[in-house]
From TrEMBL:
Any Pfam family: GFO_IDH_MocA
GO molecular function annotation: nucleotide binding
Record Gene3D superfamilies: Dihydrodipicolinate Reductase, domain 2, NAD(P)-binding Rossmann-like Domain
Protein name per Swiss-Prot or TrEMBL: NAD-dependent oxidoreductase
Domain Gfo/Idh/MocA-like oxidoreductase N-terminal: 1-117
Top-level taxon: Bacteria
Organism for this UniProt entry: Salisediminibacterium beveridgei
InterPro entries in the cross-refs: Gfo/Idh/MocA-like_OxRdtase_N, GFO_IDH_MocA-like_dom, NAD(P)-bd_dom_sf
All residue ranges annotated as the GFO/IDH/MocA-like oxidoreductase domain in the record: 137-246
Length: 332
C-alpha cells in the first residue's frame, strides 16, 4: 500500500513514523509547493519522489492512498482532487471547514467507489475502547468534562502581530478546529449528536478563537469541552455517573490511561496502549479496512465524521467565528 502525502508540518513527520512500523505500508511520494519544504522529511524517511505540481503528484500511478495534511482550509479541495484522480484518501482533522464540504466529499467517495477516512486518533485508540467497555459500570451518566489545553508557541507570534495559519480565519484555524475537535470526537463517538450546542470563546481581534468552552446537552446529561491554545492546563476527561466515574488521563487525543472509580470499591487503572505513536492505531484500522475492502465500515465512519462536522460548524458559528468556506469560498 503506497502512500503519497500532502503537507510538510510536524503531523506529517509523526504520520510517516507510524507508517514505518506497519508492514505493507510505505510513503513513496510527497507534494509540496516548494521542494525545499519537503526535502528534510523526504530525506529522513527515504521518500523517493517530491512533486511541486499537484496534478503530477496525483497522476502518479504508484500512489494508492493520499494523506492530506495541508492547512485546514485546503482539506476539502485536496481531498476532492485526490478522489477525482482515483485515490483513496486519509484526511487530517478537522475533516473540513464546513458540514457541506464534508457531505460533498462523502458523496464523491461513494460515487467513485473509493475509501475516505478522517485521521482522528481518539476513536481508534485501544484505551478509548476501554472507556466504552467500562461505561456500564458507572451507571446513568450525568456530566462529562474534557480539557485539552496546550500553550502554542504560535500564540506568541500572534501576540507579536503575526498571523500563523492556526490563528487565521482564512485558513480555518482556531482552538476549536485544532484542539477542541478531539474533545468533540471523544464525546460524540460515545453519545452521538447533542440536543444543543454552544461555544463560548476567547477571541483575538481577527475573530479567531484562541480558547473556549463547548457546552453540549443530551437527555439527562450535560457536557463541557475546554480547548485552549493560549494557556496550559491539566489535560483530562471525566465521565460522571450515578454509580461512579471514569477518569481518562491526559488529553483526549492520547487517552494515556483510564481509571475506574466505582462507589465503595478501590479504583482500578487500565492501559491497553503500548505504542507511543498514537497514529499507529488509526493507521492499522485504515489498513485493515482497505485490505479487506470493507466499504460498509468505511462509510459508517464517514457518516460519523459528517455528523461531527455539523456540530463543529454549529458550535463555531455560535461564537461568531466565520471562515471563507462559509460563503462557499476556498483557498487555492
Amino acid at each position: 500500500m503506497n502512500i503519497g502525502t500532502i503537507g510538510t508540518g510536524f503531523i506529517v513527520d509523526r504520520f510517516m513514523s507510524a507508517v514505518l512500523d506497519i508492514d505493507g505500508m510505505e510513503c513513496i511520494a510527497m507534494f509540496s509547493r516548494k521542494e525545499a519544504s519537503a526535502r528534510p522529511l523526504a530525506d529522513k524517511f527515504q521518500v523517493g519522489s517530491i512533486y511541486t505540481d499537484l496534478k503530477d503528484f496525483l497522476s502518479d500511478s504508484e500512489i494508492d492512498v493520499v494523506y492530506v495534511a495541508s492547512p485546514n482550509s485546503l482539506h476539502a479541495l485536496h481531498t476532492q482532487e485526490a478522489l477525482e484522480y482515483g485515490k483513496h484518501v486519509i484526511c487530517e482533522k478537522p475533516f473540513t471547514s464546513t458540514a457541506k464540504e464534508a457531505a460533498e466529499l462523502r458523496e464523491l467517495a461513494k460515487e467513485k467507489g473509493l475509501m475516505l477516512f478522517e485521521a482522528i486518533t481518539t476513536i481508534h485508540l485501544p484505551n478509548y475502547q476501554v472507556v466504552k467497555d467500562l461505561l456500564p459500570k458507572i451507571g446513568e451518566i450525568k456530566l462529562v468534562q474534557c480539557n485539552y489545553s496546550q500553550y502554542s508557541s504560535r500564540y506568541d507570534k500572534l501576540l507579536a502581530g503575526e498571523t500563523p495559519n492556526v490563528f487565521n480565519p482564512a485558513f480555518s484555524g482556531g482552538a476549536l478546529a485544532d484542539i477542541n475537535i478531539y474533545n468533540l470526537h471523544f464525546v460524540m463517538n460515545l453519545f452521538g449528536s447533542p440536543d444543543s450546542v454552544k461555544y463560548i470563546a476567547n477571541q483575538h481581534a481577527n475573530g479567531i478563537d484562541t480558547s473556549g468552552v463547548l457546552v453540549m446537552t443530551y437527555p439527562g446529561k450535560v457536557v463541557h469541552c475546554t480547548g485552549a491554545k493560549d494557556t496550559d492546563s491539566l489535560n483530562y476527561a471525566l465521565i460522571q455517573g450515578e454509580k461512579g466515574y471514569l477518569h481518562v488521563e491526559s488529553s483526549t487525543n492520547v487517552c494515556e490511561a483510564v481509571i475506574l472509580h466505582e462507589k465503595g470499591k478501590e479504583s482500578v487503572r487500565f492501559n491497553d496502549q503500548n505504542i507511543s505513536n498514537r497514529m499507529h492505531y488509526e493507521l492499522m484500522a485504515f489498513k485493515t479496512l482497505l485490505t479487506e475492502e470493507n466499504y460498509d465500515t468505511c462509510y459508517r465512519l464517514l457518516d460519523y465524521s459528517c455528523e461531527v462536522m455539523k456540530v463543529y460548524e454549529s458550535a463555531r458559528k455560535t461564537a461568531g467565528t466565520r471562515f471563507p468556506a462559509d460563503d462557499g469560498k476556498s483557498m487555492s
